[in-house]
Design a protein that fits this description.
This protein has 16 helices and 20 strands. By secondary structure, it is of the alpha/beta class. It has a seven-stranded mixed sheet, sandwiched between helices. Bound molecules: nicotinamide-adenine-dinucleotide.
């Protein structure tokens, strides 16, 4: 049983470890310091990698059943500690109970569902002449780098497939949300062979050291697009394999045949779930001009019912912005809208004296297509709502972005909904629903939203090398009878 006390340690080579350097962790709802976190040294990263490389000798030879058993044990342990994880997640990340529950129970589900997936050998040819088999063998040591919006879930999205395919992993949480991940390491310490799962905390520099480390074979990274580009450059040293899950600017297109009042709650949560600190949040809402005013009215009325506050209070639906730099960034979008005279349909005024990094739910009324709030990724609760008239035009506007993570279409004319959906350039397009994920569904970004994917057999494959073995069954290189009987002359 792990003690969820206020003492946080890393897990290196199956042992708990502190560090000579530390940094503080804050509760974003109160801006108060809540814990002291180890700041790993380069030597401690080396130790993780050495231990993972040693563990790989045994773990890569383990059977699928043995790996699945470990993941199922992890799922059980997460579930048994769910209440304590949820409370800690709310405290460090800011998300209210419902969001914390989705993330923690979702992490247990993911362990179980990934444990059911494996990559059998592919028999390419099997006839009297030749057998050709492609196997999917583990890469070695994976470095998992995680952001602060879904710290536990996105760590599990890397740990589960890495372990299931026979790799060992070193996980680095965001410096802003390390606490649950460190407790996860402590919890799994005796469930996983030493060195197979190492959890190490530190700042962005630790991430850089991981991406250049010659002992790491793959980086599984989730974070900002600009950081993703740095990762790609640094990973070139030893041609590390890469999965990059990056930023998004997801459009949602609303057709004129919907009832605004009926769809408003769905659209609201599409944009504001996790306080809009969500890669897949709707970040541009295109509403047909025939229903635009009515839709805006419904959204505003709904927004006014939603309680923003400290996630630890029972009736809170949206928490604070997770950290100070992100708060500063979100404030810039408010200021940019004000400076340019865009109208706020609701929200818009930030109470800077609030105890935490709070920003009000804000809808921007039809800002220009090239405004910052439309083009960039605010990653905070400020949503631009725009009008459209022509179908081809709105598809072109939705696709006119360097991002391509997700998109959604909402309407009663299912033919139109599907026709539009098929033309949207994004890794996941949701039709009349949003944020439905599954461990069996490939998830990844087009364009600058990423490289490769997570989840499903496609995601598992990203943790493997293709290992093609060919056997020529006709060849015979043994000695002939005559050759065996003829003595070698001196
Ligand atoms: P970030 O890029 O600032 O940080 C992510 C992680 O990278 C952190 O652990 C950080 O310490 C580390 N890091 C920072 N600089 C690094 C470097 N040079 N080399 C290696 N590692 C480095 O991102 P964030 O602010 O924590 O997260 C928000 C971003 O993540 C948003 O853009 C969001 O859209 C994106 N995101 C994407 C997905 C997805 O699946 N596509 C999911 C969640 C979040």
């Amino acid at each position: 049983m792990v003690d969820f006390n206020n003492h946080y340690q890393m897990t290196i080579d199956g042992r708990l470890a502190t560090s000579s350097q530390t940094y503080p962790a804050y509760n974003p709802a109160t801006r108060t310091e809540i814990a002291t976190v180890p700041d790993a040294s380069k030597e401690q990263l080396d130790q993780c990698v050495r231990s993972a490389r040693t563990a790989f000798q045994g773990w890569s030879r383990s059977t699928i059943a043995e790996r699945a058993k470990v993941l199922n044990t992890m799922a059980k342990a997460i579930q048994e500690n769910a209440e304590r994880f949820m409370a800690l997640l709310t405290k460090e990340q800011g998300k209210p109970r419902a969001g914390a529950e989705w993330e923690i129970l979702g992490s247990a589900i993911w362990c179980r569902e990934i444990a059911k997936q494996s990559l059998p050998d592919e028999i390419v040819q099997d006839d009297p002449e030749r057998t050709v088999v492609t196997r999917f063998t583990p890469l070695g040591v994976v470095g998992g780098i995680v952001p602060w919006n879904f710290p536990v879930f996105l760590a599990i999205w890397k740990i589960a497939p890495a372990l299931m395919t026979g790799n060992c992993i070193v996980i680095k949480p965001s410096p802003f949300t390390p606490l649950c991940t460190l407790k996860l390491g402590e919890l799994c310490k005796d469930l996983v062979p030493p060195g197979v799962l190492n959890i190490i905390s530190g700042g962005d520099d630790l991430g850089k050291w991981m991406t250049t480390h010659p002992g790491i074979d793959k980086i599984a990274f989730t974070g900002n697009t600009e950081t993703g580009k740095h990762v790609m450059r640094s990973a070139a040293g030893n041609l590390k394999r890469l999965t990059l899950e990056l930023g998004g600017n997801d459009p949602a297109i609303v057709l004129p045949d919907v009832d605004p009042e009926a769809v408003a709650p769905q659209l609201f949560w599409a944009a504001f779930q996790n306080n809009a600190q969500f890669c897949n949040a709707t970040k541009r809402l295109y509403v047909h001009e025939d229903i635009y005013d009515e839709m805006m009215g419904s959204l505003v009325r709904y927004a006014r019912t939603v309680k923003v506050g400290d996630g630890s209070e029972a009736d809170t639906q949206l928490g604070p912005i997770q950290n100070q730099p992100q708060y500063n960034k979100v404030v810039e979008y408010f200021e940019d809208c004000q400076k340019n005279g865009y109208r706020f349909a609701v929200g818009g005024t930030i109470d800077r004296a609030a105890p935490g990094w709070f920003v009000p739910v804000t809808l921007v009324d039809n800002p220009p297509e090239d405004s910052r709030v439309m083009v960039e990724e605010p990653f905070g609760p400020i949503l631009p709502v725009a009008k459209w008239r022509d179908e081809l035009d709105v598809i072109a506007r939705a696709n006119n972005t360097r991002f391509g993570l997700g998109a959604s279409v909402w309407g009663n004319d299912l033919e139109a909904v599907q026709r539009i959906g098929r033309q949207l350039q994004a890794g996941t397009v949701w039709l009349n629903e949003i944020h439905q994920y599954s461990a069996y569904q490939a998830f990844g970004g087009h364009k600058e939203s990423g490289l490769g994917c997570e989840n499903s057999l496609h995601g598992l494959m990203e943790y493997t090398n293709w290992h093609t073995i060919t056997l020529n069954k006709k060849a015979h290189y043994g000695r002939t009878e005559a050759a065996v009987q003829t003595p070698v002359s001196a």
